[in-house]
Amino acid sequence: MGCKILAYKKYAESLSVNFGSGGGFTGAVDEFILNGNGALKSIKPFVKDTMLLKTLSAKDTKTIFKMLESKTMSNIKLETPGNMTNFIYFNKAGQTIRKYQWAQGTQVPKEISDLFTLLNKQTQL
Amino acid sequence: MKIKQYAFSVLLIPILLSAQTPNKLDLRTKRTNVENNFINSIPVIDGKKTANFVSSIRSLPAVNTVAIEVDLRQTEISRIAVANTAQAMEKAYSFLLTNKQLVHPLFNANQLSVYNSELDNLGQSHVKMQQYYGGIEVSGYEIFVHFLGSETYSHGLWANIPVGFNTVPTISKEEAVNKALMAIQPDFGFTVLNSQQKAILKYSLPEIKTIISIENNMAILCYEIMVRPNGIERWIAIVNAKTGDIVKQYNNTCHVDGPKTGTGNDLNAVQRTINSYQISSNFYLIDATKSMYNASQSSLPDDPSGAIWTLDANNTPATSFNNITSTSVNFSNTKAVSAHYNSGVAYEYYKTTFNRNSINGSGGTIISVINVSDASGNGLDNAYWNGQFMAYGNGKTVFKPLAGGLDVAGHEMTHGVVQNTANLEYNGQSGAINESMADIFGCMMDRADWKMGEDIVKPGFYAGGALRDIQDPHNGGNSLSDNGYQPKKMSEYYSGTQDNGGVHINSGIPNYAFYLFATATTKEKAEQVYYRALTTYLTKSSQFKDLRLAVVQACKDLYTNTEAAAAADAFDAVEIYGPPVSGGGGGGNIGNNVADLPANPGADFLLYSDEDPNSPYTITKATLSSGTIAGQITHYTKRKPSVVDDGSYCIYVGDDNKIYSLLLDGSKTETVLQSQAIWANVAISKDGKRLAAITTNTDTSIYIYDFGKASWQSFKLYNPTFSGVNSGGVLYADALEWDHTGTKVMYDAKSLINNQNGSDYSYWDVGILDVWNLETNNWSDGSIEKLFSSLPDGISIGNPVFSQRSPYIVAFDYVDGNNNQVIVTGYNLNTNKIGTVFTGTELGFPSYSRTDNILIFNALNTNNDLVVAQKALSADKITVSGTATVLVSLAKWGVWYANGTRSLLFNSKDILTFGFEGLNPQVIATINGTNITCTVPGTVNVAALTPSFTNSPYSYVRIGGTKQTSAVNNNNFTNTLVYTVVAQDGSTKNYNVTVQKTVVGIQTDKKNLGINLFPNPAIDEVLLKASKPMQTIFVYDIQGRLIKEINANNNTSFAIDIQSLQSGMYIMTVKTAEGEALIRFTKS
After folding, report:
1. B643, β-bridge pairs
2. Residue B265 and residue B257: Cα distance in Å, rounded?
3. CA–CA distance, B563 with B815 (Å, rounded to integer)
4. Who has the most CB within 10 Å: A54, B280, B654, B750?
5. Shortest Cα distance, chain A CAs vs residue B434, angstroms
6. Distance from CA of A14 to the nearest CA of B (A)
7. Do B384 and A24 touch (CB under 8 A)?
C-alpha cells in the first residue's frame, strides 16, 4: 500500500497544468501553473516572475488531474484561438502533451469549461 | 424581465429577422423525434460547444415590474369569437350592457363613442370608447374592451353625470384664454413664434375646447386651453367655464422618446458630446443618430438595430450586461462616456474615410462593454474583441481603464472589420497581420502620433511611454524581454509558439512597413491603400508576403507606380521581399495558393428527378452528348442522388427512408445499402470511400460511414459562434456534399435561437465539417468552419455544392426572406468574391458541369413548370455570361456527372522558387530537377540562413519531421540539406539544397589549372583558355548574384558572350575535374 502511494505521488509530481488567458489589445497573458504536488503559482505578465499563490490539498489536486486524464478530455481537440484566448496546457515530465486553446466567449465542450472554471476558482485567494 | 434578455438581444441581431419570414429551405424535409437503437449505437464525436455562459445569463436579476393602476372592471363571459372590428364594436357594447352592473348601476352605454377599434397581429380585438355627456367630452373617462381569444375584459372609467347637468358656459372662450395666459408660467417665457415655427408646430393661436372635468368627484364644465408660449413648451390650462377660475394648469411639453444629445466627461477629463436615447424619464447610452439606425427593427432599449450601444458588464467576464442609464441627457460615468464616445468616433472614421457602414459593413449595431473583469472576476488589464462586441477592462497593474484610449477602441473595432472582411486567421503571420491592421487603423483614428495605448498605460512600465510604437517597434527596448518591444524587420522575427505564434509580437514588422509607407506617401493615401488591401486582396491565410503583394497592388489600383514603389521600398526595408521572379518592387499573383483538378475525362451525363406526370420514372439519366434519356427507378427519393466521381453509381434515400445505391452502367441495379428506415438524406464521397447521412429526426448529428473501417461515426454539429448564444443552436442538417478529398462534408443546417419574447427564430447556414484525417487515416476531430461568419438580416443559405474542378469554388442558394427571392450564388473561398448566377423564386439545388463552364439549377419556366435550367459561367466560375436556358423540362435536382476517372487529390510537390531574400542583395537559387543550388557572398554565415521559397498548392515542406515556413525557419546550410515536399495525396519529393560561398584567394588554382582570360577589360566577348578541360563556368556580379551558368563541355578553350552584361566588374568561377579557379574581369 505504502509503495503504491509513493508511486502515485512520484507520478503526480511529474504532472502540471498551465492555464490562463491572453491576447486582446495588450497581448498580455495571465498565466498560472498548478503542479502535481498542489503548488499553484502565478506567472505574472510583463514582469514574468512566478509566485506561489497557495498549495491545494492532495484531494483537490487529484480531482483536477483526474479530469485532465479522463478519456473524454483526451478525445477533445480545441485549437481555436481568438483575439482573447483562454488556454489549458497539460504537461507530463516537463513536456506539454495536450493543448486546449479557444477564443474567449466561444462555446467549448462542457468538460473544458468546467475544468477551466475549476482551475480559475483555485486562483482566488 | 427585459434585462434578462440583453445577452440574447446582443447576439441575435444578425439573424433575428431571418426567421420571421417563412423559409423555403425549411420546406425540404419534415423532421420528427423518434428513438432509434441503431442510431444510439453509433459512437459520437461531440464537437458541440456547450453554452457555459448561459447559466449566468439566466441568473441575472429581474427588474421590478410596476403595476398599472386602473379602475378595472374585469369580467369573464361566455366565449365570444370576434372576427373583425365592426363585429368587435357591436360585441363591446353588448358586453358592457350585459355587464352594466359591473360598471355602474346607472351606466348608460349611449354616452360612449368608439374612437378606435382594431384587430392586432395576434388576432385579438380591442375597442376603445370615450364618454360624452350632452356631446361634451368627459375628459379622461374612457372604457376599453379587449377580446382575447375566448375571454373578454374591460377596464376604464365611467362617470355618472347627474341628469340635468348644465352644459352652457357662462364666460366666453376669449375670456378663458386670457385667464389661461395670465396663469401659466412658462420656463422659457413668452416669445413670438416665427412662421417656420408655426408651420412645424402647426400652431398659431391658443386652441380651446369645452370639456367636463371630474375633480374631487365633482363634474365641472370647463374650457381646456392649449397654449404654446414659445417654440419649446406646450401648456394646458383647464378653466372653469362658469366662473373663469383656473382648475389646473400644467406644462405638457411632450418629452418624446428618442435620440437626445448631452455631455459627459470622459476618463481623460475631456467633456464629450454624448448621443443617448430617451425612453420615458431614462436616458440610455444608445446612439440612434447614425444613418445606419433602423428604427423599425429596433426594440429599445434591449435590442437596437444600427445603433452604437454601450453596456456595463458589472465586473463580470462579460457574462452579464446592464444598460447604462442616466436621468438626464448628461452622463457622469466616465468609462461609459469614453467607450461610447470613442465608438462613435471609430464609426465615423470608417464611414467618412472608407464609406464603410459599421463594423459588418451593413449597419450592424456596434456594442461596447465596460467594466469587464478577468475570468476570476478580478480587474482586467486588457481590452478585447470577442467576435460580437468590444470589451474593456478597468486595468490593474499596468493599465488604467482601457476605455480611455481612442486607439484602443479603434483597434478593437478594426478586429471586427477584419472578421467581416479578410477574416485573417488569428495565428502566425496571418494573425500578426490581423493585429497590425487593428493597430494601423486604431492609430489612424488617433493619428496625432504613432503610439498605441499612450493614454491608458500607467507610468513606468514602458520605456517608450506607450504599449506599442508603430514608428519605432522597439519602443525603447532592445529585446523581447523588454516591455513593449516588437521586432521591426524579418531578421528579428519571433518564431516561437507563444502568443499564437507571435501575433502581438511580429505585428511590429508590418506596422513599421506601414509607417515607412505612410511617411513616404501620406497617411491619407496609406490608409486607403491598406483598407483596400484588407477588404479586396487579403484572405484568411494571407502571410506577410501576401500583404506586400496586396498593398503594392492596392497602390496600383488607387494611385500610381510611384506609390507602389514606395510600398515595395517599405516592405524591402522590413525585409518582406517581393517574389524572386519579380526582381523586387512588387508584382506577382495574389492568392495563387490554389489549383484546379483535371477535368473528369469521361462523357457528360445528367441525373435528375423526373417531374413529368406522364413518365413512370422518378429518376432519369440523360446522356448529354446525344440527348437520349433513360428512366432509372420508379419510386420517389427524398433528395437528389449523390454520384461518385467516376459516375459508376449513385446513392440516395428512398421514400421509405432507407438508403439505396443504383448502378449507372445501364443495368439499373438498385440495392438497399442501409435498411434502417430512418434516413432523410445521404451523400457518397467522390472517391466512394465514405458516406454521410442524416436522419429524419430533429437530429444535430451527421453520420459518417467509412467503408474501409466498416463502421459508423456520429459527428455532432454546433455553431462556432460567440458568448451568450443559447444552447439551442443547431437543430438539424439537410443538404450534404463531400469535398474532393473525402475528408470534409459541406452541409446546410437549421439553427434555432429563442428571442427575448420567447418566440423562436431560425435560419439556415452552411458549415464544413472535418470528418477524416488523411495522415492518420482515421476519424478527424469534427471541427466545423462556417462558410460565412454571419449572415445579413433575413438571409439564409443552403444547398451548397463544390465545383467539379476547383476545391475553392462553391455554389449555393441564397434565400432572401425579405424579398422572397432565391439567388443561385457562386463563391470563391480563396478570394472571398461572390457572384450572382440566377435570381428566381425556387430553391436552385445547383450543380456544376464537368468542366465548370456551366451551372445547372432548378427554375420555373414561363408556364411556371419546374425545369432544370443552365447558365454559362465566366472563367471565374462564380459569375455568368449569357442568359439562362432550359436544359430539361419538367424536372428538378439535376446532378451533372461524368464517367471517367481522375485523381481527386493533388500530387504536385515541387519547390517552385528558392532563395535568400533577406540577404542584401537577394540571392536566388537555381533549381535544376531536384537540385537547388546557389552561391552566397563569402562573408555570409551559411550556418544560419532563412530561405524564402514557394511550393506547389496544397503541399507542405519539411526537413525531417519539422515543417518549414518560408522566410521563417532558420537552418544550417553548411552541408546540403534535404527539403521534402509532401503533396496532398501524401506522396513526397526530396530536394537537395546546396549553398556555396563565393571563393576568394584561389589564384594559385588559376595558375595550376592554367586558366587565362582575355581581353580584360572586354566589350563583347571574353575568351577562356585552360590547361585542363573546363566543365562549368559561373558568372557573378560583384554583389555575388549568379548571372550566367554555362556548360563548357570539357573544352579547354571557350568564348563567352558578355554583350548583355552591364558595365562593371564581374567574377567568373571555372570548374574543372581537378579544381576551381576564380577570375575577375571588367565589362567596359
Report:
1. B650
2. 24
3. 42
4. B750
5. 9
6. 23
7. yes
Report, as an integer, the average pLDDT of B162-179: 90
Q: Which CATH architecture has domain B1003-1083?
A: Sandwich (2.60)
Residues of chain B positioned with their CB less than 8 A from the CB of A103:
386-387, 426, 722
What's the fold here for domain B911-997? Answer: Immunoglobulin-like (2.60.40)
Which residue, among B316, B372, B384, would best test binding to A if mutated, counting the most A CBs under 10 Å from its CB? Answer: B384
pLDDT at B654: 94
CA distance A7 to chain B (A): 34
Q: In terms of CATH architecture, what is B173-251?
A: Roll (3.10)
- Whether B412 is a known active-site residue: answer yes
Q: What is the CATH number of domain B256-421?
A: 3.10.170.10
pLDDT at B662 over 50: yes
pLDDT at B129 over 90: no
A124 to chain B: nearest residue by CA?
B376
How many domains does chain A divide into?
A: 1
What average pLDDT does the segment B493-514 reach? 90
Task: Return the CA Rg of chain A.
Answer: 15
Interface of A with B in 33-72 (CB under 8 A): 45-46, 48
> Quick one: pLDDT at residue B376?
80
Q: Which CATH superfamily is domain B604-898 in?
A: TolB, C-terminal domain (2.120.10.30)
CB contact under 8 A, A106 and B391: no
Check if A118 contacts B (Cβ < 8 Å): no
- Asked if the domains B173-251 and B424-539+542-592 are classified in one and the same CATH topology, the answer is no
Least confident of A88-92, B151-155, B303-307, B946-950: B151-155
Catalytic residue from among B454, B504, B527, B842: B504
Query: CATH number of the domain that A55 lies in?
Result: 3.30.1560
pLDDT (average), residues B365-386: 91
Structural class in CATH, domain B424-539+542-592: mainly alpha
Domain layout of chain B by residue ranges? 72-156, 173-251, 256-421, 424-539+542-592, 604-898, 911-997, 1003-1083
Of residues B1059 and B435, more confidently modeled = B435
Report pLDDT for B8: 23
Q: How far apart are CA B296 and CA B656, in angstroms?
A: 46
pLDDT value for B430? 92
CA dist., res. B391 & res. B380, Å (int): 10
- Cα separation, B672 vs B650, in Å, equals 12
Strand, coil or helix: what is B208? strand
Q: Does residue B495 belong to the interface with chain A, where contact is any CB pair within 8 Å? A: no
Give the Cα separation of B130 and B157 in Å (integer). 9
pLDDT tens, position by position, B960-1000: 988 888 877 889 998 999 999 999 998 999 999 999 887 54
What B35-38 contacts at long range (C-beta under 8 Å, 24+ apart), as own/partner pairs, is: B36/B676, B36/B678, B36/B695, B36/B697, B38/B676, B38/B678
Catalytically annotated residue among B412, B435, B492, B575: B412
Question: And the C-alpha cell for B1062?
Answer: 552591364
Q: Please name the residue of chain A whose CA is at the shortest distance from the CA of residue B722.
A: A106
CB pairs under 8 A between A and B: 131
Cα–Cα distance measured from residue B247 to residue B224, given in angstroms and rounded to the nearest whole number = 10
**DSSP bridge pairs for B833:** B828
Asked if ipTM goes beyond 0.85, one says no
- Per CB-CB distance under 8 Å, the chain B contacts of A75 are 45
Model pTM score: 0.56
Residue from B228, B221, B131, B220 nearest B173 by CA: B221
Q: What is the mean pLDDT of chain B?
A: 83
Q: What is the pLDDT confidence band of residue B383, given thresholds at 50, 70 and 90?
A: very high
Average pLDDT on B77-99 reads: 63
Residue B520 has pLDDT above 60, yes or no: yes
Q: Provide the shortest C-alpha distance from residue B360 to chain A (in Å).
A: 17
